Amino acid sequence: MPNIQEQIRKIRKHYWLYKRERNIRDTFSHFFHKEATGGILLFFATVIALVFANFPCFFDLNALWEKELAISIGSFVQKMSLRDWINDGLMMIFFFVVSLEIKREIMVGELSSLKKSSLPIAAAIGGMIMPALIYSIFNSNSSETISGWGIPTATDIAFAIGILSILGKRVPVSMKIFLTALAIADDLGAIIVIAIFYPTHSINLDMLMIIAIVMAVILILNSLQIRHTFLYFITGLVLWFLVLQSGIHATVSGILLTLLIPTRTRISGTKFYAHTNFLVRKFRKNYVENKTILANQECLDVINAMRSEIAKASSPLQKFEFALHGFSMYVIMPVFALANAGVVINFNEFNIISEASLGIIFGLIIGKPVGIFLFSFIMIKSGMSKFSDGMNYRLLLNAGIFAGIGFTMSMFVSNLAFDNQTYTDTAKIAIFISSLLAGILGIAATLSTKKRR
Predict the structure, then answer these.
(1) Model-level pTM?
(2) What is the DSSP string of 239-275?
């Protein structure tokens, strides 16, 4: 009899683990397909921008992005070019969404514990240090281009996942999850690099004091258990404007706002379960008796009560991420590509063997996979980390190759790194070449791995 009970306990335990694993994979699958679609849209937007830039007979997109747009409220006027509104305004929302995803992953996801996060974080650190080192070696004698060391440190998660989605089942789920966690940790590193090393101009200390006051107000709203997203939206706009005037890049305001966004709900999980369970029983009783919803006021009252309970069980972080993730993926990133990827490709002027070009190409193609593999190898051999089920060194190397796709973040950093537009355009062409090569090499390596397996 005890043996039977022990077997039942084991079955229940394995079933619970199976359900938990399935829920994690279902959540990841939903995230993966969203990112993949965004990557495909980003690709088409990039192609359109390149075509229109090199064949102006279609339409002069550059003239459109340079048009000035002003917003005035009373005596206040904020005037910027349309491209600057995209890079400083829309990209603030993009960084806000990325920061929300990172915060969620740190709290409950793949980065929520040292055991889970140590390997992808170490891989991300290696994938940033090695490309920056390679770029710095190539540009050590050039004071004009050395500031671009941050360009090859970034990974474009949307593009990388977009390619993985095309490969479908040829890519193991374990590799997809690892690359996603790696890219999220990499995004965090890129955000830190942009915030610290790439200010837009001289820092305004007085404005920084005002920013601190606004952040204190947001923190007070959080501590008072205020969960109205509209208040955080308004204070976020104020914070964005102040950061824009401070000399720090405006997108940093999205990161600062994320740090202060509440993650707690207005109702505990236990109370939510009890309340909704009671409402479900009440709904079932009224529905069985009347067989209708629209004409049954009791059923409608129960539905409204459920809606209220669900709102209480959703934190502002969840609400913002749910509302803005699709907008960021399907609108902001393609529009950013349209505004910034339109580089005139003139091979008579573009020097592929220039210090900046070689630093970016070798940094992304070689530095990324070598840094990721080396740091991960050290962590695993030292016993500080271990592979998740299904991962191995071959898949780790493949993930490192795909991480060399550094499109969006790399282009964003190139806009900040150089004062000379020629260097910026050269960097963007090098990013195109590197990302294309990384994608091709990643696909070849993955198909080769599939054949061996």
Answers:
(1) 0.76
(2) HHHHHHHHTS-TTHHHHHHHHHS----SS-HHHHHHH
